[in-house]
Design goal:
- The chain has one domain.
- Helices cover about 55% and strands about 0% of the residues.
- Strand 1 and strand 2 form a beta hairpin.
- Helix 2 packs parallel to helix 4.
- The longest helix is centred in the last third of the chain and has 36 residues.
- The C terminus is likely disordered.
- It is found in: Membrane.
Length: about 200
């Protein structure tokens, strides 16, 4: 597969992942699946917009660039017909780096949120982080300390875990495009493939 075709496959994979991250971050604004009575009842990390900005919009731009590499028809420069293709592949490395930074930001925010746990109302009716000093991930019985919203712990864990895993996958895909772009910059769109006007010539 040529470097442009491989980049297109990566772009196709990144688009749905970016949309998923945006949706997950939006859903986190509704603790337990219901509208919050007050913005202070929402976990702080939700407002950092790791899924909307980091793994979302910052990932859409690289994905669109990767999608367009296959059909890039730059006319060449300095007498080298593949010059335009090489420059396009080099540019994709920069966009891949932007994607890695965006997804990395989402991964960090999600990791902190999972470690800290959700903000919820306890028996004293105070909205706080009851799990910030304990390992609630392996102690499900401690989840009962969150009285409201209903199911907030599983809601929090599910959505932030999705953001974490998706962010890691996005980092991996962008890293693959960085390597692919480097190969495309050095070798052109298809390494070892003869240009059409050269085919048939011994």
């Amino acid at each position: 597969m040529c470097t442009g075709g491989f980049a297109k496959c990566l772009g196709i994979s990144l688009i749905p992942l970016a949309v998923l991250c945006i949706l997950c971050n939006i859903l986190l604004f509704f603790p337990g699946g219901v509208p919050a009575d007050d913005s202070t009842h929402i976990t702080d990390e939700v407002f950092y917009l790791g899924g909307i900005i980091g793994s979302g919009f910052l990932m859409i731009f690289p994905a669109l660039v990767f999608l367009g590499l296959k059909n890039n028809d730059c006319c060449g420069c300095c007498g080298n017909e593949s010059c335009g293709k090489r420059f396009a592949m080099f540019t994709s490395i920069i966009f891949a780096a932007v994607g890695i930074l965006g997804a990395g930001y989402s991964v960090i925010v999600s990791s902190v949120a999972i470690n800290q746990g959700p903000k919820c109302a306890t028996a004293s009716h105070n909205w706080t982080y009851p799990f910030s000093n304990g390992n609630y991930l392996s102690n499900h019985s401690s989840w009962d300390s969150c009285e409201s919203p209903d199911g907030i712990v599983s809601w929090h864990l599910t959505l932030f875990s999705l953001l974490l895993v998706t962010g890691i996958v996005q980092v991996a895909l962008c890293a693959m495009q960085t390597i692919n772009g480097l190969i495309g910059t050095i070798c052109g769109d298809c390494c070892g493939v003869r240009a059409p006007h050269q085919q048939g010539v011994l």
